[in-house]
Amino acid sequence: MENRLSAGEDRRRTSGDRRHSSSRERILREIEARPASTADLVAATGLHENTVRGHLERLLADGHIAREKEAPSGRGRPSLRWRAVRDDAAAPYAGLAVALAEGLANTSAHPAREAKDVGRTWGARLAEDRAEGDARTLVLDVMREQGFAPDPAESDAEERTLLRNCPLLAAASRRSDVVCAVHEGLIEGLARSRAAVATAKLLPFAADGACILHLQVAS
């Protein structure tokens, strides 16, 4: 059973304005101290593995942590570890993104369509400053730099890539119709700068907390 925090003890608010339990806060502070695997957190907290996994999924959904792959050490797929997301740098931009997304949703008859157009323009501008290269490599490079943590190891024959992090998670959680449409357009704008035809479809939080990107490119 989890220990309850005393009335005067500080609690961290999540993006949904909920409050952490003492166990979830303990896990988060362990991760803030250093990146850790699930097994590391089980050992450090003494909590059951299923309990730790549940708290991790909630912290991931609320934008406090992100998943990353550890360097491979032998055969098999590399294991995952958890790292803290710096809220101090992201929060002002997340708030701005929410305000802009809600403004567009309230004033436009087709907010998702207009948001995607904005994203395409953004992607085209970013592509202008890039060295020549194929469309897919350009998209993955920019997604990595923008903080989406694309996972090429999870790509498959269906041209699917997992995006394991969202730099605007709080905004996307509230207005995914607009925020994710901007990101779709960004990807299309990048890809179309290198390919005759390119289409992007972004499925928010569709795979174990990650977003699924379907990118089709024709030269």
Automatic annotation (TrEMBL):
Top-level taxonomic group: Bacteria
The organism of origin for this protein: Microbacterium bovistercoris
Full protein name: Transcriptional regulator
InterPro entries: WH-like_DNA-bd_sf (IPR036388), WH_DNA-bd_sf (IPR036390)
Region (Disordered): 1-26
